[in-house]
């Protein structure tokens, strides 16, 4: 099964829109981080109901596009944090990159 089986081609743009809106919400000081996925879910459902034929199918696509967007953002964020932590070995640590990775996971 491929992601293209779950999300129709005309809903891909919704993922891009949600990603941009999420970045804007992240920069807004009055919005807490835990609120962003909920706000993106509501926005995704509304946009999908506007882009696709309104109904249960469009609502489910809104949830799927939001989930894909948040998941993709978190994968990128976590991957960046892990790789940046591996390159910032302190002089006290060994040069084994797996040591830093294990410490990162243990936290």
Q: Would you give an account of this structure?
A:
This protein is mainly alpha-helical and 107 residues long. 73% of the residues lie in helices and 0% in strands. The chain has one domain (3-106). It has 5 helices and no strands. It is flat and about 50 Å long. The mean pLDDT is 80.
Can you summarize this structure?
The protein has 107 residues and is mainly alpha-helical. It has 5 helices and no strands.
Low-pLDDT sequence parts: none
Percentage of β-strand residues: under 5%
Number of helices: 5
Helix content: over 70%
Number of structural units classed as domains: 1
Largest sheet entry = none
Distance between the termini: 34 Å
Global structural class: mainly alpha
Basic shape: flat
The count of strands amounts to 0
Task: Give the SSE string.
Answer: HHHHH
Quote the average pLDDT. Answer: 80
Kindly provide the radius of gyration, computed on alpha-carbon positions and rounded to a whole number of angstroms.
Answer: 18 Å
SSE layout and pairing:
Blueprint: H1 3-6, H2 12-27, H3 36-51, H4 56-87, H5 97-106
What characteristics describe this protein?
5 helices, 107 residues, mainly alpha, 73% helix
